[in-house]
Amino acid sequence: MHEKTPLIRLSKREDMPKRRIWLIRLGAFVVALLLGMIVFWIAGANPLEAYESIVVAALGKKTGIRQVVRNAVPLLGTALALAPCFKMRYWNIGAEGQITMGAVAAAFFAINCKTMPSLPLLLLMGLGSIVFGALWSLIPAFFKSRWGTNETLFTLMMNYIAIGIAAWLIGGPWEGKKGSQIIPVFRDEAVLPKVFGVHIGWIIVLVITVLMFIYMRYTKHGYEIAVLGESENTARYAGMSVGKIIMRTAALSGGICGLVGFMIASGAHGTLYANVAGGAGFTAITVCWLAQLNPFAMIVISLLLAVLTRGSSTLQTSMGIPASITDIITGIILLCMLGCEFFINYKMHFRKSSGKEAA
Amino acid sequence: MESVHAVEFKGVTKRFGHNTANDHIDLYVDKGVIMALLGENGSGKTTLMNMLAGIYAPDEGQIFVDGREVSITSPKVAFDHHIGMIHQHFRLVDVFTAAENIVLGLEEKGRLDLKAASKRIKEISAKYGFDIDPDKKVYEMSVSEKQTVEIIKVLYRGADILILDEPTAVLTPQEIEKLFKVMKAMRADGKVIIIITHKLNEVMEVSDVVAVLRKGHHIKTVRTAQTTPAELTELMVGRKVALNIDRKEPVDPKPRLTIAELTVRDGDGIKKLDNVGFIAFGGEILGIAGIAGSGQKELLEAIAGLREIESGTIVYTPEGRHPEQLVGKSPMAIKEAGVAMAFVPEDRLGMGLVGGMGMTGNMMLRSWTAGKGIFVDRKAPEKLAADVLADLEVVTPGVDYPVRKLSGGNVQKVLVGREIASAPSVLMTAYAVRGLDINTSYTIYNLLCQQKEKGVAVIFVGEDLDVLLELCDRILVLCGGQVSGIVDARTTTKEEVGLLMTSVGGKEAN
Amino acid sequence: MMGTIDFIVALISAAVLNGAPLMFGTSGEILTQKSGNMNLGVEGLMFMGGAFGLLGAFAYGNAAGDSASGVVAVLISLLCSFAAGVAGALIFSFLTITLRANQNVTGLALTIFGTGAGQFVGELMRIRVGGNVAISNELKLAFSGSPFPAALQNIPVVGPLLFSYNVFVYLGVIMIIVMHRFLNKTRKGLYLRAVGESPATADAAGINVTRYRYIATVLGGGISAIGGMVYTMTIAGTVWNHTGLSGEGWVAVALVIFCLWKPINSLWGSVLFGALLILYIRLPIPFLPTQIYKVVPYIFTALVLIMVSIRQRREDQPPAALGTAYFREDR
Predict the structure, then answer these.
(1) Which residues of A fall within a CB distance of 8 Å from C114?
(2) Which of A150, A159, A305, A325 would best serve as a mutation to test chain C binding (most C beta carbons within 10 A)?
(3) Cα torsion for C220, C221, C227, C229, to the nearest 10°?
(4) CB pairs under 8 A between A and C
(5) Of A138, B192, C23, C304, which has the highest C-beta tally within 10 A?
(6) What region, left, alpha or beta, does residue A192 occupy, with left being phi > 0 and alpha being psi -120 to 50 degrees?
């Protein structure tokens, strides 16, 4: 008795109709919600009430909606920043650090330009954050293009180094009151203005969404990135300069992350914290991936996660459920959505139904 | 007992999609015999052997080993039947030693004893005359050593039936000689050896019987002692096919590309091109013949600026302008220097095209820098895609349908169509008709002839000698990275080219 | 003179103590990565391990009351954290091996899920019990005390250096040595490395790639999770302390690289990183701010990464197939 033909054989498929793809994804989402119900049940809460409470808390009131938007801005901004990198198959998981460095740059100008009027100051902060984020991202990109240094691991390390630097600045040179370990709140001129009750960052990311869509789809750079992502040999064949493209794209990505850092520090917090990114850099990776790198889909997914975060943050007070249930539910949703892609990309052949062999 | 064959195929058929790779093959081999499986590229040799090695399962027919019908569902099952195949692409773990690679996957009981394994490896080596250090890491090995590890791996598992897939393609003549000695030692030990090849001289030297395949059919099995290279050639290629390619005399050929003393090494430091020199003229088709891996790929890539060049010159002489040195220029710099070079690489989807993009996106690969500003111009490539689609009758659901999903012939049409559309003055093609049906092949031949008549210098790397002889004006033969000879395609013979392919300078012609 | 020796001894002891969670976190991830799977969910796994380990000991302590045995508590804690890690790694394996989801993204999602789950359990215990989760002092001692008799521990210098640690340090050392032997001296270890280097080669040689990857990843996840438990039950003093635990998993990932994917290196690597985690308190360096001091492990790791890529020594490279799914028909 030797190896049997496997019960299920797989082959790749690339021809599923759009409608079915979205049905599968919706199904995965529903499955995730059902699994989430188990968690609520363990926590001793009525799952349906819990879900209702999440939705009401997030979308029932203006303050809730504003918080949702505030939460979604960094997720969306960062996911957009990562899209060109991922398209290029460059695994930038250093967004967390790039956001932090952007925020550091913004704080630098906010603290040091003591008399500058608001508009130039904000522009300077924004520009500085872009440059800092880009430079921070360029370091691993340089080593990647020059020596092929593994960018996944390198960018990961850069996150913690950046956070360390921010922590040092906050507790050291930039510290407000001695021993407070925090820096003073930015003066009003250095705080992003609000539109409809939320800092203007939400408009900025929506603009970036459109720009990124255009950049990826219609520009020469976007074309280079797409070709390089498919095959480095083809890119070289077409006369593209591979190292340059990697560094440029990483810098762009880091720059946008830096800008996100500026928006969080100046818009949401009004000061610099060491964990200014607060995990957005990691969560955005999953947002970007689940959106299949499509900027508009990223809006939907980041809003969804933001609703969840905002809604469940109230569960602790309203139902006595630990706030960390947010992360569990988010995790379950992400894992389910990741898993469901399999059913979109692969076809299963059961042993009896078909005996055909693929080449 | 004599009637029981070591291996026998009965009516074995294997299809890939609409392509029948093996069509009702009946074939047998006996113990203590070296059988050569002879045939041109694409004749179905490797597919047939892959079924014996458990890589593919046959669609129809039966396989017998020692007279018993077997179902070989995996390489492991093949080993259980004492069958081992040495593939062209070695399956070795680079950071492991020879011994570690050899014991990999064995289902032996007890603890891992590499010392004992080394001892057995040395015994096997001594028995058949291998030269191998069991503790050497694979990444430190030459190609020939790696092949030795693969062969020992198979023997270590107790294989009595060894299949070698084009084992000599990557070896030097001295290494080939050594390999043949080993094969004969194994034969003396009663093993069955099947060697897949398309080189006649090797067949004559080492085999006892020759089975000839052509286009998926088993044509005939003959005793080597009772045949001649001429007969084998005829069996292999069939009667000389009249191709009816409309070949015009070159009109006013002028030197376009002058290559001298060109030497190129690959990433491992192995010399792939050795002091190569020739001139390609505008208005003629220069064929390049040679056994697979003789430096064809490296030559074209070096000219296209995709390979680091150790020494030598590549000078481009445009019509009425100053010559341009191409060595040291990137593909972009070559383009910017005004050299209209078109290149159809061997690896279509891995180098010439972007599989995930549609025809339009792929047309852009040559024009993406066009125009000022940050946006790519989609209009021109869209039109070009539509033109190529119409002119070459590409079968696709639309110009935005990913080319990866198109059939091989259509993929090639997209690539060739784009390259010709760039109005080149040098057109290089590598195996332009590989895997294409007759009609598509003719489409491509005609396109190349048209280009030649327009005054383009066409360089055609091919594998089918009939085509080379009928399509080209001159043929340059590469052998082991050297120019073995340059012959006039109108006067030369298949035999002459074949001789040049297997030994440098076999005979000077022209 | 005596003072210096005492100081060094104390420093080394503290380094070992702080390195113990990393021993598990890192060696578990090394086992995982050797199979070609890059599980970036270590942080989540260690959170889960920490919370469930605590939960196990706590539940046992409550149930057994005064008759609770320290050994049993340790075993239950070990088992609970290991099981939590196995469960987490099983999710990861199913998604990346069977469903072929992207490993980086899945790992990060697992981190989100795992930190949430750990945090959830920790908080839930607090909410249910009201106030801090308390474990009797005897049980605590079983976790943090040395298994050796006082006579051995009291030998000057040698005692504190060799015999004063909690049981997990010794367990960790044994486990690392076993893993080293397994990977380098056994048949299965060789096959596992082959799977991580070249799954196609392993597959052709008849090795079941899927099975090896599953087993290595799941076991590795369980081992990593034990590291979280060790942190909670020893360093954090059997109290749920998520701020202390947070980041531990990422240090473990960094250490995997620093150790060049060799478990034996994690013996001293863990102690070194353990030292770096606390050195800023014990050995402040003038001009070097503590916050920067704390990220030295990451800077070291980044430098190692760069050096390895420039030197290109084959033995130091990550497993060649790291991060890629294997699909037989791709070949």
Answers:
(1) 331
(2) A150
(3) -140
(4) 165
(5) C23
(6) beta
Q: For B64-115, how does the pLDDT look when each residue is reduced to its tens digit (9 = 90+)?
A: 999 899 998 888 888 889 999 998 888 899 999 999 999 998 877 777 888 9
Which residue in the set B369, B376, B405 is minimally distant from A218, CB to CB?
Answer: B376
B366 close to A (CB below 8 A): yes
Nearest residue of B to residue A356, measured between CA atoms? B59
Phi-psi category of residue B14: left, alpha or beta, with phi > 0 → left and psi -120 to 50 → alpha: beta
Kindly report, residue by residue over C252-284, the tens digit of the pLDDT.
998 998 899 999 999 999 999 988 888 777 777
Give residue A5's pLDDT: 52
The yes-or-no verdict on residue C40 having pLDDT over 60 is yes
By residue range, what is the domain housing residue C196? 2-330
- C74 neighbors C142 (Cβ within 8 angstroms): yes
Show contacts of B179-186: CB within 8 Å, 24+ apart. B179/B144, B179/B147, B180/B205, B180/B206, B181/B129, B182/B128, B182/B129, B182/B130, B182/B151, B183/B34, B184/B34, B185/B127, B185/B128, B185/B129, B186/B128, B186/B155, B186/B162
Domain count, chain C: 1
3-class DSSP assignment, residue C180: helix
CA distance A118 to chain C (A): 32
Closest CA to C253 of C168, C174, C192, C322: C322
Give C327→chain A minimum CA distance, Å: 9
Edge-to-edge strand ranges of the sheet holding B68-70:
B19-29, B7-16, B60-65, B68-70
Higher per-residue pLDDT: C19 or B294: C19
Q: Return the ∠ at Cα C120 (arms to C114 and C125), rounded to 5°.
A: 135
Cα–Cα nearest to A152, from C103, B419, C261: C103
Nearest to C291 among A150, A164, A358 (CB): A164
Q: Which domains does chain B have, with CATH numbers?
A: 7-237 (3.40.50.300), 240-340+423-510 (3.40.50.300), 357-422 (no CATH)
**Considering only CA atoms, which of A324, A46, A36 is closest in space to residue C123?**
A324
CB pair distance less than 8 Å for A238 and B361: no
Contact C329 A11 (CB under 8 A): yes
Neighbours of A91 (CB within 10 A): 24
How far A240 CA sits from the closest chain B CA (Å)?
7
Tell me the residues of chain A between 160 and 219 that have a Cβ less than 8 Å away from chain B.
218-219
Residues in A touching B366 (Cβ below 8 Å): 238
Question: What's residue A202's pLDDT?
Answer: 92
CB C240 within 8 A of CB C288: no
The reply to whether residue B79 touches residue C206, judged by beta carbons under 8 angstroms, is: yes
Min Cα distance B13 → chain C (Å) is 20
> Which CATH number is C317's domain given?
1.10.3470
All residues of chain B having their beta carbon less than 8 Å from the beta carbon of residue C193 are 93, 96
Chain B: give the shortest CA distance to residue C187, in Å.
Answer: 5
In terms of Cα–Cα distance, which of B264, B297, B304, B299 is closest to B278? B299
The residues near B158 (Cβ < 8 Å, ≥ 6 apart) are: B79, B82
Q: What is the DSSP code string of B55-121?
A: SS--SEEEEEETTEEE---SHHHHHHTTEEEE-SS----TTSBHHHHHHTT----S---HHHHHHHH
> In chain B, which residue's Cα lies nearest the Cα of A224?
B368
Say which DSSP state B262 is in.
E
Residues of B in contact with A222 (CB under 8 A): 376
Q: Please report the pLDDT score of residue A355 as a whole number.
A: 41
Query: Across the strands, what pairs with B474?
Result: B286, B488
A-chain CB neighbours of C292 within 8 Å are 164-165, 168
Q: How far is A12 from chain C (nearest CA, A)?
A: 9
Q: pTM score, two decimals? A: 0.86
